[in-house]
UniProtKB/TrEMBL annotation:
One of its GO terms (cellular component) is nucleus. One of its GO terms (molecular function) is RNA polymerase II transcription regulatory region sequence-specific DNA binding. This is Si:ch211-51f19.1. Transmembrane segments: none annotated. It comes from Sinocyclocheilus grahami. GO terms for biological process: regulation of transcription by RNA polymerase II. InterPro entries: STOX1/2.
Length: 110
């Protein structure tokens, strides 16, 4: 029996957590993440933020070649791409240089 379940070939699950804003006088925040209505919009924000890595062409190229696969349980973003591009994203996350979509933090990649 295999210890891992492969959801889709050449896919990566990005597990997110919502950013909790500390209570501050005069600041009101809704429970919903800022201007995200669908999983695809969260993916588009993630892609947009990370394509700005003009100083790291490998990350920018890897992000450009990924595609939205799905959004699970309001915290897991599934993306698909070539295995070498996904590996670049894993390495960028380990170096803490991969940016999360606005209103989220990246807990881990799977």
């Amino acid at each position: 029996m295999e210890p891992f379940l492969q959801i889709a070939p050449h896919s990566l699950a990005i597990v997110l957590s919502r950013v909790v804003v500390e209570d501050a006088p005069g600041v009101t925040e809704s429970e919903e993440p800022p201007h995200h209505h669908t999983g695809y919009e969260i993916f588009a924000d993630f892609k947009s933020l990370n394509m700005k890595y003009f100083w790291n062409k490998m990350v920018a190229d890897a992000i450009a070649e990924t595609f939205f696969l799905g959004w699970i349980d309001e915290h897991v973003l599934l993306i698909q791409g070539k295995e070498d591009h996904l590996e670049v994203l894993r390495e960028a996350w380990m170096r803490r240089s991969l940016k999360a979509p606005q209103g989220f933090d990246i807990k881990y990649l799977g």
